[in-house]
Design goal:
This is Aldehyde oxidoreductase iron-sulfur-binding subunit PaoA. The chain is an alpha+beta fold. It is 30% helix and 16% strand. The chain has 2 domains: 2-99, Beta-grasp domain (Ubiquitin-like (UB roll)), CATH 3.10.20; 107-190, DNA polymerase, domain 1. A hairpin with a 2-residue loop joins strand 2 and strand 3 (32-39). Helix 3 crosses helix 6 (175-186).
Length: 199
């Protein structure tokens, strides 16, 4: 990373007023390398949306409370609004645009469509990115708050899925359909799920 500071541009301004510290950062985003000079205060979310125009990742609360901005960072899910872009030199980022395409959906995207796991759709990119990561976490044996035995591998259960998705909020209330979609991909039976599927 190269750090630089821009000189004051406003006539008569004191030097400290207009200094903007920037850093050159290179990221692998959805399989493509990008090198940008960014203000050190730029969040990963703003880099994705404002600099790379990857607007699938949504800005909801901008405080890490809703999960709409969830992306994969070096294989783990993060709230992109809570981390600075310059902290991730050389990192690999996958956004909703990198999971699948309209012609070839990721299995989780296809399951969300089948189970109507969205309504307005605003939170859906973060929900899907989080859902994919949840299944990876369970497969890797990472425990959650509802894992009964922290020394044992967590069970792939509806309770585990619900707990792990609790950081992703849906104001439309599509939670049961989201869990149905995840359960289908994971191969977990959901009691009464057939009653909730759209006609």
């Amino acid at each position: 990373m190269e750090a630089a500071a821009q000189t004051p541009s406003r006539p008569g301004a004191r030097p400290q007023e207009n200094l903007v510290a920037t850093t050159r950062v290179t990221l692998d985003v959805n399989g493509q390398s990008h090198t940008l000079d960014v203000d050190n205060r730029t969040s990963l979310l703003d880099l994705l949306r404002e600099h790379l125009r990857l607007t699938g990742t949504k800005k909801g609360c901008d405080h890490g409370q809703c999960g709409a901005c969830t992306v994969h960072l070096d294989g783990r899910r993060v709230n992109a609004c809570l981390t600075l872009a310059v902290m991730h030199q050389g990192a690999r980022v996958v956004t909703i645009e990198g999971l699948g395409t309209p012609e070839r959906l990721h299995p989780m995207q296809a399951a969300f469509v089948r189970h109507d796991g969205y309504q307005c759709g605003y939170c859906t990119p973060g929900q899907i990115c989080s859902a994919v990561a949840v299944l990876d976490e369970i497969k890797a044996g990472l425990p959650s708050h509802v894992t009964p035995d922290l020394q044992a591998r967590p069970l792939l259960s509806i309770d585990e899925l619900r707990e792990r998705m609790s950081g992703n909020l849906c104001r439309c209330g599509a939670y049961s359909n989201i869990i149905d979609a995840m359960a289908e991909v994971a191969g977990v039976p959901v009691p009464g799920a057939g009653d909730r599927r759209p006609a």
